[in-house]
């Protein structure tokens, strides 16, 4: 591996190193979960002090691109899909007994003339063809929530040919397209389902639902996915343990 720092760009040295390391991450030099060279090794590659390298690495840790494990090293971060509002919900039946969850891939549709609002959420030009991926979360075989993901089709060709029953969407994007989800923002609200959503969930249009809208981001703030999750309120229980 050959790394060089541009010391003539007017930036502090650690920022030059940070930019170089970030570029290497974006180009896939290291994959999610890979361990980076030690700070001493990077210092030798750059011809700089360990302290300067440490500043650059810590900056990338704060950005969520790297993680540090004491006694082990520095690793390329993986997005934790267990985060977000979903980790606070438990699935229960009418008797308050736990339900065994599973995921069913309903369909992946290419929308040639994408909705302008969704295109804007994806930071894509109006009229960009958009993939709509619909998956159903089941509990004991019964619909619990409907996940509808939207992605820019020009970035992920061939997505409509894949079955996502037993695969996480983010894992597929990482393996097939080298795309890494670094962070996500979610909004939670109560509301009513749209007609197609109510039909798939087996509820009436007047049944309250929990709606979670997620925007998933990659490198440099690029939007990878916008998702709308509609959950049956009669199947959700909120649970959190506080200190």
TrEMBL record:
Pfam families registered for this protein in UniProt: GntR, UTRA
UniProt keyword list: DNA-binding, Transcription, Transcription regulation
GO biological process, one term: negative regulation of DNA-templated transcription
Domain HTH gntR-type: 11-79
Superkingdom in the source lineage: Bacteria
Record carries keyword DNA-binding: yes
Signal peptide from the UniProt entry: none
Listed PROSITE patterns: HTH_GNTR
Gene Ontology MF term list: DNA binding; DNA-binding transcription factor activity
PANTHER family linked to this entry: MANNOSYL-D-GLYCERATE TRANSPORT/METABOLISM SYSTEM REPRESSOR MNGR-RELATED, MANNOSYL-D-GLYCERATE TRANSPORT_METABOLISM SYSTEM REPRESSOR MNGR-RELATED
Name of the protein this chain belongs to: GntR family transcriptional regulator
Organism: Ancylobacter aquaticus
